[in-house]
Amino acid sequence: MNLIGSKTIETKRLILRSSSMEEQKRLWEILMVPEVNKFYLTSAKGKANDKEYWTWQVQEKFYKSKVNKANNQDTFVWSIFLKPEYVVSGREEVIGQVSAQKNGDDIKVRDVGWFIDKIYQGNGYAKEAATAMLDYMFKEVEIDKISSGAVRDNITSCKIFERLGFTKIGEVEEDSPYTFYDGRLIFSKYELTREMYLSQVQIIEYQDQYLNDVRDLLVELEEYILSIDEDNLDQLHPEYREKMALLDLEEVNNNNGKCYLAIQNNKVVGLVMGFVRTYDEYDYLDYKCPRSGEVARGAKIGKNLMNRIEDYFISIGCDYVFVDCFAYNKNAFEFYKKQGYHPRMYNNVKKLKKD
């Protein structure tokens, strides 16, 4: 294990930095919001109703003590900053915190946690920060395992654990350990080992070096569609392999979209392409036209690929995502149903009989 402390980490939208006193008052303000601190241990339970204890004048001493340890090599706590280009003011803004604390006597086993400012929740920032933190802890710090959990009713945090590849190992009912919540709670327990993490399929944005792999996957998909097409309307054109991937990628690039690849052993084993839906005058006459993403193409899509494209759509302000699914592809229908999708429109076809 490498005790290298909380080095600065950058993601597309965030900067994770070791804590400094400059942003602590804002983090304290964020934690004083009930929707944020409900399932968060901020201090001893006996202090919950002590109003004077929760004033900044008193809390400042605690935060100074925490910051004094922030640069220790065995401390892994980051303040989460939103990059200037994603803030209305055009200035960097602290929006929360993420950490990997010790879990028991073994320093190679960690418990992770995070909180995000209420006004910035629902944009995928917690998952983005947690993803970066996990990568750092497993690949650079080289911890052995993360053993953590969340209240079952904290659906958002449980989904983040699952999307990050954690294994749910059980549930346990306990008295609430949280400062501002009394009563019994059911906790979902999660684990992720370094071996499991490093062996996971990696999801990356499209790179030109994988173009031929993408072509092969699209041909494989079309061959499968041909095999189940009861109408016998699909075809595999001689130029399909050469052109289809390029046409799809062009549509993605021209419509604020993304193509994500699932990589295993340096080979593409799945892909998903999506872009922002556009509307014409006909649409506006009979449809509310919400900002929506559309999954245009996929091959061997798994849960992780769908999570990634959905996270992208959330990050650019989409409220819905639409997926076209071939009617005879029953497996795909079942997959999307399990991911929370439901049919909205049916495209009916009938072969005409001619005299």
Structural category is alpha+beta
CATH class categorisation of the largest domain: Alpha Beta
CATH third-tier fold name of the largest domain: Aminopeptidase
- Cα radius of gyration in angstroms: 24 Å
Average residue pLDDT: 89
Give the low-pLDDT segments. Answer: none
What distance separates the N and C termini? 79 Å
Count of separate structural domains? 2
Strand content: 25-35%
User: So how many helices?
Assistant: 11
Give a count of the beta strands, DSSP E runs of length 2 or more.
Answer: 13
Based on the coordinates given, report the CATH architecture of the largest domain: 3-Layer(aba) Sandwich
| Percent in helix | 25-40%
Major sheet summary line: 8 strands, mixed
Strand line-up in the sheet with most strands = 1-2-3-4-5-6-8-7
| CATH homology group of the largest domain | Gcn5-related N-acetyltransferase (GNAT)
The ordered H/E elements are EEHHHEEEHEHEEHEHHEEHEHEH
- Rough shape? elongated
